[in-house]
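Suppose a colleague, Dr. K., hands you the sequence of a protein chain of 161 amino acids and asks what its three-dimensional shape might be. Before reaching for any lab equipment, you can write down a predicted structure in token form. Begin with the sequence itself:
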Amino acid sequence: MDAAEVIAVLTAPAEDRRTLMDRLEADAPVAALAGALAAADERLTRQLAADLLGRRADPAAGPALLAALADPESRVRSSAADALGKVLLNAGSHAVPDAGPALLRAYDAETERGARHMLAAALGAAHHREAIPLLRRAAQSPDAGLARTARWALDQLGRRD
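The predicted structure, expressed as tokens, is then:
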């Protein structure tokens, strides 16, 4: 299975995408999912490809997920950050060496609330110590969801104070 086949499966009409997602999670190589994330024209297809990469939590997905942090669609950026966090939690922060700085840059540039939440969580999963000041500020945010996520991220870093 290659990227084009993954895109075809994800864009085919379906009453229940869960069966398709389960099939792709089991059968599609990480390279094919990463290729679909990079090549798909439709936002939903890129988002689902990122979600599948997160479900696989394979470090080989790291470069594609890092690239997707710059996607023009916030839902794709959010799914990419979530997936990257899952990779880092599963395989360790060393699994994607450039993740911390890339996540910090993405967080600084992000304007969408949901994507910022996922980026904050991924920064904690990355154990990126340079994010501590940003996460401390976010932990004081009036946005309760962001504050809660930032506190979790600080706990991952061992620096909740």
